[in-house]
Amino acid sequence: MALRHLIHQTRRYSGNFLLRSEGYWRLGCSQSRFIKNQTNVSNAAVNKTTNLQDQIKDKRNEIQDFIDVKKSELQDKLEDKKDDIKEYIEDAKVELREKAQEKSTEIYKKRKEAKTRVILNLAERSLDYLKKYKTVLGDAFPDKFVQTYRIFSTGTRQLAQDVQTYARVKDTLVNSIDKQKSHAKLSTAEYEVFLRLPKDAIRVTPVLLISAFPFAQNVVFPLALLYPKLFLSSQFLTSQQKKDVLLSIARHQQEIFPLWKEELIRCTDMTYEKDPELMHLRTILKSGQQLSAQEILDLRPLFELNGPLDIRHLTRRHDKLLASFHRVWYIMFPYTYLEWYANMLWRMDQALDREKLRFSPEVIRSLSVQRGLNPELFSEDEQLQYLRHWLDISVQLKYKDISLLLHLPLFLKRKPVYEQ
Predict the structure, then answer these.
(1) Max CA-CA distance within the chain?
(2) What are 8-60's pLDDT values in tens digits?
(3) Hey, is 173 helix, strand or coil?
(4) Within 10 Å of residue 137's Cβ, how many Cβ atoms?
(5) What is the DSSP string of 144-208?
């Protein structure tokens, strides 16, 4: 019985164990399936998330590319618009400049025309006055003074012609657009009148105006005839008186010459001690060495605009001596008048070169004095040779070298007696 009970108990416990084991196995299988399903779900979620992220990233890239394309298109449009605006602004600027230039040119022409009208009116009035003046002369001088009458009659006629010439040259130079062509049309005689007439007018106008009053000519003309160089212009002088005036000018230049040379040496000593070119020039001036045309032309850098010996950089005493030597009238600042005179002298040299120096002995004498040569000490052939040497240098100069043109009398070959 006991054995049977033990077996029964054993079977019962074994059955229970098996049942429990089966239950545990089933539970383990369920848990394993659950874990597996959970893993699959997680993997699927991860895959889904990855796919979504990839899709979002692709979408972002597409959006960014779209934005970049749009930005590029907008930038291109903006650049095109900027270019259009710039072109419009530039066109507007050009149009405004052209309008301003046209207005300025119109105003300039009107001013020049007004000045020309004033000059021509003055010239016409002067001519009318001089024509009527012949009647005054005829009444003032009886037959026994016919020679004196002839002098004043011829002088007024020549003065009237010079006034016409001056007005024509002034109009040509003022109203011309191409100055070079205008200057190329002028002759030596026209330049001479243009340079001389203002001085002549200042000298003779008071005499003519005062003598127009009743009985005034009885005092004015004898006084003018007594001092013709002081009260009369070149148109009223005889040939001998003109010659005397030229010799007086030449003697004055001869007095100025050593002072002028000394001042130029002082200028080279004063500031530019270390400049080898100026030191060389100073040596030449002190030694009295004669220079060839090429050696004179090599001095151009010293005398050109903004150079150490430019007209505007010289001392006031130097400018005054230069103006006195060349008989240039000035007010306060000599260099402005010297610059204008040098330009006219340079243009006149070009006319001389065109005309090949084919002039009368009187004109050659006048041209020589104008360029610093005393005709009293030189023959006519020597005067011509001097003028040719002058032109050989002058025709090679430019406007920027006009200071050297005014200083040419210091460097051109001449007899030593001129400096004594």
Answers:
(1) 208
(2) 666 665 555 555 556 556 666 666 676 766 777 777 777 878 888 888 888 88
(3) helix
(4) 19
(5) GGHHHHHHHHHHHHHHHHHHHHHHHHHHHHHH-S-HHHHHHT--HHHHHHHHHHHHHHHHHHHHH
CB-CB neighbours of 321 under 10 Å: 21
Torsion of CA 300, 306, 307, 312, to 10 degrees: 100
Taking only the tens place, the pLDDT of each residue in 86-126 is 888 887 777 777 777 777 667 766 766 666 666 556 556 55
How many C-beta neighbours within 10 Å does residue 285 have? 16
Q: For residue 263, what are the contacts with CB-CB under 8 A and spacing of at least 6?
A: 315, 317, 318, 321
How is residue 405 written in tokens? Answer: 């043109």
State the Cα–Cα distance between residues 48 and 46, nearest whole angstrom.
Answer: 5
What kind and span of H or E run contains 390?
Answer: helix 380-394
Please provide the size of the chain in residues.
420
- Amino acid letter for position 377: L
Residue 143 phi/psi, 5° resolution? -60, -30
